[in-house]
Amino acid sequence: MLDHDLVARIYVKLPLTDCGECGLPTCREFAEKIVVGEKTVFDCTQLENDIAQEISLMIDEYLR
Questions:
Q1: For site-directed labelling of 3, which of 30, 48, 56, 60 has its Cα 20 to 30 A away?
Q2: What is the CATH number of domain 4-63?
Q3: Which alpha helices (H) appear in the chain, and where do they start and end?
Q4: Residue 1, pLDDT score
Q5: Against a cut of 0.90, is the pTM above it?
Q6: What contacts 24+ positions apart, CB below 8 Å, involve 34-39?
Q7: 63: nearest Cα among 12, 42, 49, 55
Q8: Residue-wise pLDDT tens digits, 5-63
């Protein structure tokens, strides 16, 4: 089941450019794929490392 709250918390940390470089048309879809484990933060080429680490910690806490 998709945790929409977690998706929203991740989404606001993304670049929000909808560039498609991750293979998905929108950053929202990218956030959803991160939550279900089909993508990682490192699939976003525009995401800065400190933000990627922050999102990774959010995912780790969610999975505990």
A1: 48
A2: 1.10.15.40
A3: 4-11, 27-35, 49-63
A4: 81
A5: yes
A6: 34/10, 34/59, 35/2, 35/3, 35/6, 35/7, 35/10, 35/59, 35/62, 36/2
A7: 55
A8: 999 999 999 999 999 999 999 999 999 999 999 999 999 999 999 999 999 999 999 98
